[in-house]
Each structure stands twice: as structure tokens, then as C-alpha cells.
Amino acid sequence: MIFKGKHNHLLAAAVAAALSSAPFTSIADDGTERLIVTGSRMPVDSNQIIAQVAVIERAEIAAMQAKSIGDVLAPIAGIEIAQLGGAGQQQSIFSRGTNSNHTLILVDGVRVGSATLGYKELSTIPVQQIERIEVLKGPRAALWGSEALGGVVHIYTRRLEGGQYQLSAQTGSDSYKSLDGAVGVGYQKGSSTIALSYEDSDGFDVRDDGEDDDDGYDRWSAALRGDYALNQTVTFDWVAQLDDGSLDYDSFGVDNRQDYRNHLLMLNTRYQQGALESELTVSQSRDSQISFIDYFDYFTGDLVEDKSSFETRRTQLSSVNRYAVTPEWTITGGGDWYRDEVKATNDFTVDERDTWALFGHAAYDNQRWLAEAALRYDDVEKVDSEVTYNASFGYRFAPQFTVGVAAGHAFKAPTFNDLYYPESFGFAGNPDLKPETSDSYELLVRAHVAGIGVDASLYRTDVDDLIDGYVCDENWNCAPQNVDSATIKGGEVTATAAWFGIDHQLALSYMDATDDSTGSQLNRRPHKTAGYQANVSWRQLDVLLAYDYVGERNDAGVRLKDYQTVDLAVSYHINKSWVVRAKADNVFDENYRSAVGYNIPGAQYFISVEFANN
């Protein structure tokens, strides 16, 4: 089996204020309100969501001096990142043991990713332009639709107030250099943020069985984000972002390079009057990729310059409406429509499809009992329709001690590659594929006692109709088939505390992700992971120490050894505007492999200077 891996100006300010002092997870130090959007598609206190939620703020991203989204997500319990090379190379996210394409990626409320691959390549999203990330673990397809089996990663991009600005420059190992800046432009009824970023690195040899050369990358991004309040009840906000980059990779050729150019366009309007809130969003996202492979013809010895291209566009329209029936009861309803279009070097047998959906959500919280239910109907053109649900119940024994249970049914629609890939070398897509489905159950405990915050859960997920991409007949004609299933059982604990002037976070997880047909551990899913972070501030100095342990796991028929790494990040605040930062990744130069055939960079060192007035 192959199991692969707006916003109202005032509302945005309120969300930022509510989250500015939030710890790395959803655990509240003092029971204060913390607003998130991912759990219900409208801002809601995270304490009302019976699910594991992690929130990472811009300040935490800056403190850890992350180079990629994978760096930001890796410390979260239940999240495993498989890094196929350095920061600019492919990153796969495995949320609670599900596939790498079973985690939905959202950017400012818009689903993004390739309709041919079925996932978003995280390395193409510039971490410098991220304001906040919400991570909700467990199924949420009843609100967001396809792909949200293992969880949802919701990325919010930078937003500055008028007159604020920021500029930073960094250099380090492998000839790494980066430059990024952002400025906020204010006007009478809103503000806009203009952001630019650039990165370049010579890289290192990412594969141990390919070409003996350095695999570098470069990437840049430009974005415009803004909001405007028409009056007291109607507001608009918008996003226009372009990401462009190139990376080297190893293959059988002599010159292997991949270029990408992705964009995101979004316009949102929001109406709020009394107990009613409504949002209407129109957006378009594009993922475009060109792969170049130059190789010598075996028979003639001539140099052959070859390339292939894939481009997918997704045009979306979404409506979300929430009504507060009473202070305890809220109901939410809406609909989604999106069209996926594919253009590629080889013509697909079908190159576009529409998906439309209707959903409803109800939440109840009387300070003791809380309950939540969601139901959604998706119709995927030429594939199938699917009904998904989420249901959860919780009880607060005290304001800072909650126990809850949750269940959910989710699905993942087959990709264009799965369904319609044109016949090539004995392989072709299978238009008769069904969606992959999952059923999940969870027990959660959330508490804050004697200065220690704890989020813990036990869960089970049964995944059926998994698509094996290469099922071949006796004549070696191969096509994807719904033939696989898996059972995933696990538990995770995240604890936070502030002792002796040091902020501590401990994240532990155990997972048994099993192929039902063979009983073997699924690829790239370790049974055990552990992470610890300690953050201390003294006068103008901030120090962050991070320890990570990843247990043994399978990959491509090989048993990968467990490993542990230590990172150290130091920030020195010269004054209110200037900060000098230094980072050492993998301080002890641990030699390990994240995936079979791929090297890791070893110890790396970076230094940066930042100037900001915000």
C-alpha cells in the first residue's frame, strides 16, 4: 500500500489584540478570550472549540527565526514534517498520521494548493510574510470540505497599521541571504500593507543517490493587503499576492531545475448588524510549475533539453452567515463553490471541474455545558457527492478545566492526476475513483492548574478507500485504485508553564499508524515524538532553546533511525526599533535522515538585523 505522504479593520485589531499574548498552543494562562476563525469559519473564542488548536503569532515566528513553515509547525504535538532537503525544497506535513494531502491549507480563508497534486507545497509560501498561523487538528471537512481529514492549517498574512514599517536582512550558511520589508499605509477608513521578500541560497546536495552538486534555490514574493470600512456595518478587505521562485533538484539529468509562479487574489465583504454577521468572498489562486530536465540521449550522446509544465487555477466563491440566537446559542450557515482548471504539457482527459457545497453549524455554550455540530454536503463534478459531519460535547468542571468528546466524518476528493492523467508509459488516471473517507473519534482534556496549562487528547481515525496510485494488471497497465485502508490511534499532550522566569513548553505524542492490509507502520510516521522549548528574557536579551526528538519510522522499505536535534536562537534588542538576531540550527550537527535518499544540511548558522517602528 502507498499511503503518502475582514476583515473589518476594527475586527482585525481585536483579533490581534486577543491573540497577542497567547502561548504557542490553545492553552490560556488566565482564561481570557482568544479568537480563532478556523474552528467555525467566524471569529470565536478557542475555549468554545472542542478540538486541539495551536496558534503561532508573528512574535513567536520571529523569536524562533524560522526559515520555512515547516520550521514553525514542527514543534506542535501530532504534526510531523518530512523535509526533502533544505528550506527551499519540498516539505510534507503529516497531521495525526494522515496523508500529506490530508491537511487542508488555507491562506487568509482561501483554500490553496495544486489540483493535480492535491496539496500545497509549503516551501513556496514565504514565512517572512506570515502574521499568524492557526492549526486545528482532527477532521473539519464539515466546515471546509475536501482534504480536511487530519487537520487544517490556516495562514494569515502580514497586516500593519498605517505608518508602521519593518525591514530585515539575514545571512548565513550555504551562502544564504534574505531581505524583507513591509509598510502600512493608512487612510481615513482603513489601511493597506505592502510587503516584499527575497531569499537566495546555494543550498547543499539534497540527495545521496543523485547528482553530486549543490541544490540551491531563490524565491521572492510581493503582496498587497488592505481593508476599508464603508460604514458602521459594511467593510471590505483584500489580498493580492505573487510568489515566484526556482529550485534545483537531483534526477537522472545534468541540469534539473523547477520554477514556480503562484498567485492569490481575494476580495471579501463583511456585514454586521446586531446579532447577524455575513461574509461574501470571491477569490482565485494559481499554482504554476515548470520542471526542466537536461540529459544526454543514451543512443546518440546528444544533449536533450526537456521540460514539463503544470498549472492549476481555482476560482472560488464563499458565503458565511452567523446569527446569535441567544447569548448561548449561535447558528452558522453558508455555501462554497469553486472551479478547478488544469493546463499541462500533456492534455488531461478532463481539465476542469466544479465543486459546490452547503454547510450548517450550531454551537452552544452556557459556561458549563458546551456542544457543537456541523453538517456539510459536497458535490464534486464527475466524481461523487459526500456528506460530512462534526459533533462534539464538553463539560467545564471549572472555568479552567474542560473535558470533551468529539467525532467527525471527512473526505478527500481524488486529484486530476488520480482521475484524468493522460496515458504515459503504461500509466493512466482512473475516472471511476471514489473519494477517500475517514471517521475519527477523540477524547480531550484542557486544564490550567497551579500555573501549568495542559492540552491532552486520545484519538482514533479509520481511513477507507485510500487511493493506491500504482495498481497494475498482468500486462503492467497501471492505474490508481481505491484499495487501501489504515487505522491510526494515538495520544498527545502539550504542557506550558512559567517557572523561574523561563517560559516552558513540552509537547509529547504517541501514534500507531497502521496499514490494515499488512499491519506495518505507515511510511514517515514515527511512533514517538517529543519537543521542548524554553524561552527566557533578561533585560534586552531573548534566548530560545528548542529540543526535538523523532522516533524510528519506515520509509520506502527502510527503517529510519530515531534522532534528536537542538536549536538555539538569540535576539538582542538594541532599542525599541533595532534587533540583532542569531540562530544555530542542529547545534550538535546530528546526522539523520528525514526521508530515504535525502540528505540533511547539518549544523547551520544565521545572523540577521531588523528595524521596525511597530
From TrEMBL:
CDD domains: ligand_gated_channel (cd01347). Keywords: Cell outer membrane, Ion transport, Membrane, Receptor, Signal, TonB box, Transmembrane, Transmembrane beta strand, Transport. Belongs to the TonB-dependent receptor family. It is a multi-pass membrane protein. Residues 49-152 form the TonB-dependent receptor plug domain. Residues 197-587 form the TonB-dependent receptor-like beta-barrel domain. Its main location: membrane. SUPFAM superfamilies: Porins. InterPro entries: Beta-barrel_TonB (IPR000531), Beta-barrel_TonB_sf (IPR036942), Plug_dom (IPR012910), Plug_dom_sf (IPR037066), TonB-dep_rcpt-like (IPR039426). It is found in: Cell outer membrane. It comes from the Bacteria. GO terms for biological process: cobalamin transport; monoatomic ion transport. This is TonB-dependent receptor. Pfam families: Plug (PF07715), TonB_dep_Rec_b-barrel (PF00593). The lineage of its organism: Bacteria, Pseudomonadati, Pseudomonadota, Gammaproteobacteria, Alteromonadales. Residues 1-28 form the signal peptide. GO terms for cellular component: cell outer membrane.
